[in-house]
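TA notes, week 10

Several of you asked for a full example with nothing omitted. So below is the full record: structure tokens for the whole chain, then the designed sequence directly under it. When grading your own attempts, check the secondary structure regions first.
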């Protein structure tokens, strides 16, 4: 017969339960990316190998544009050494443009089998034939960019670089619907810097003020939920909720919330994070009609980081070019998170410049004082140029923008996408991601059921749906009645199996759910994650059948 616990033991257990509940409450308030560190600590205490499928850093990357970067580096250094060849101390000078193309062709012929050199030779041909760029000017810009020997001029973006980026964004995001020359591009230190600069410049230019409303298409990347609430901005958040039952499309009833004139900005991540589904053409067209007919003053920020993993993607920018700031990052698709390469694209005819022109006289006077060191025509200073200046506190505008080597690698990534006529790299990336999706779900014990607009970079595991598919609706109802189910599930998964995922709640997913990245582990490891998830649900089902 079991010994009845003493009063002292009962009190200790009750105190431990209270401490656990307090810890859960504290953890629930954390950003999903801060919670990740706590989960990693819990997972590291297990005897099993930790599997971190939380953060979405890919474990694949594009090698060819990196080989091209290295090959161009060899040529660039040899060009530099021509200036002071009589010195023998590793001394170089600024490269000479005159005759550079001929020297480059000779350099290529000297080593014709080098893969990176073949890519570069093709790139020089491509930009001349397809983009109308001067071969010498393009090559000279790329060489000096690699060497990093000259301040990038103009600060916002190098001239040839902008033309290549315009073409790449037009192909991958805009569906060829926007004339390339009509788009201004600002390369930034990744998509996160783009977000930071946009919110900051909208605020300092009086386009968003504390108490204004901002609409967010949820679920959404958690910083979009957190930034508007910071004291710097103090915005009132309105959620425009995607419909999970319709593959996370934005329904008409939710889009109609944008008719509220108090909403100044609408943010969406497309394809979404974490559901990883793109908005179909019908939704884009409904949004375009709403903006054109009833909200021509609305500012839209679309974050299209995962666009290149989607089939036949079209950005909101393509259908609402006048109203939209488009954020894109090379980080995920090309495996370049460490490079910090992102862009902001803005149409030259845009509503933000119109809103600046319509500001009250007092606001214009304040902004004249802010930007007077840059130009004698502050009212004519475009928002894209204010973004650049604000990113360096205005006074350092002349050294704004990202480095030459960063811009060069970005150009080589973009040319890789433009010149890959058979989509070999893109098809391989999609196949890898989607294969992992299938592996994960099969090892959870359910058939994979991707929808037509699913992208699959992440998968949002709906614990209610998964429980229903495995054990029926009655169990699913019991499961979701557990308080803090998603957080408790994550903690158990981490501490018992060494698997780290992120909470759907942190991205404003309403249902109990967890986010798994399909980009950063092996197929074998996704099998282990699927099996671990199934094992914990089996334990829950055991408690359910035993009346727990």
């Amino acid at each position: 017969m079991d010994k009845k616990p003493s009063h002292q033991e009962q009190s200790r257990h009750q105190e431990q339960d209270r401490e656990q509940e307090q810890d859960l409450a504290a953890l629930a308030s954390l950003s999903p990316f801060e919670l990740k560190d706590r989960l990693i600590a819990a997972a590291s205490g297990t005897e099993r190998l930790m599997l971190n499928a939380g953060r979405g850093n890919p474990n694949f990357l594009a090698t060819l544009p990196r080989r091209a970067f290295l090959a161009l580096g060899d040529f660039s250094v040899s060009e530099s050494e021509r200036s002071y060849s009589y010195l023998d101390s590793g001394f170089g000078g600024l490269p000479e443009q005159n005759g550079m193309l001929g020297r480059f062709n000779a350099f290529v012929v000297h080593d014709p089998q080098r893969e990176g050199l073949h890519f570069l030779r093709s790139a020089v041909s491509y930009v001349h034939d397809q983009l109308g760029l001067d071969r010498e000017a393009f090559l000279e810009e790329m060489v000096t960019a690699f060497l990093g020997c000259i301040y990038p001029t103009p600060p916002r973006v190098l001239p040839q670089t902008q033309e290549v980026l315009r073409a790449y964004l037009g192909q991958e995001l805009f569906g060829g619907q926007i004339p390339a020359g009509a788009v201004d591009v600002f390369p930034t230190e990744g998509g996160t810097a783009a977000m930071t600069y946009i919110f900051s410049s909208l605020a300092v230019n009086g386009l968003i003020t504390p108490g204004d409303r901002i609409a967010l298409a949820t679920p959404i990347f958690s910083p979009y939920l957190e930034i508007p609430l910071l004291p710097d901005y103090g915005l009132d958040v309105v959620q425009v909720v995607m419909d999970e039952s319709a593959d996370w499309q934005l329904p008409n009833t939710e889009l109609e919330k944008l008719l509220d004139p108090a909403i100044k900005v609408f943010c969406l991540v497309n394809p979404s994070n974490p559901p990883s589904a793109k908005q179909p053409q019908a939704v884009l067209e409904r949004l375009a009609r709403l903006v054109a007919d009833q909200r021509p003053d609305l500012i839209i920020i679309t974050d299209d980081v995962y666009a290149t993993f989607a089939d036949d993607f079209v950005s909101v920018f393509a259908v609402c070019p006048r109203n939209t700031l488009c954020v894109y990052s090379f980080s995920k698709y090309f495996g370049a998170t460490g490079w910090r390469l992102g862009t902001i694209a803005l149409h030259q005819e845009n509503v933000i410049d119109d809103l600046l022109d319509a500001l009250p006289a007092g606001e214009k006077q304040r902004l004249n004082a802010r930007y007077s060191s840059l130009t004698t025509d502050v009212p004519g200073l475009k928002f894209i140029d204010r973004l650049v200046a604000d990113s360096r506190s205005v006074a350092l505008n002349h050294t704004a923008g990202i480095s030459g080597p960063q811009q060069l690698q970005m150009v080589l990534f973009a040319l890789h996408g433009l010149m890959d006529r058979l989509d070999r790299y893109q098809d391989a990336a999609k196949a890898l991601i989607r294969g992992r999706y299938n592996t994960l779900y099969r090892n959870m014990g359910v058939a994979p059921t991707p929808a037509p607009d699913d992208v699959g970079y992440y998968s949002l595991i709906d614990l209610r749906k998964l429980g229903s598919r495995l054990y029926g609706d009655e169990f699913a109802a019991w499961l979701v009645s557990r308080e803090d189910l998603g957080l408790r599930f994550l903690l158990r998964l981490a501490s018992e199996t060494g698997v780290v995922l992120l909470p759907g709640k942190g991205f404003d997913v309403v249902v109990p759910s967890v986010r798994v990245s399909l980009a950063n582990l092996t197929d074998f490891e996704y099998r282990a994650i699927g099996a671990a998830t199934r094992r914990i649900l089996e334990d829950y089902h055991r408690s359910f059948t035993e009346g727990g």
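DSSP finds 21 helices and twelve strands in the chain. Use that as a sanity check on your answer.
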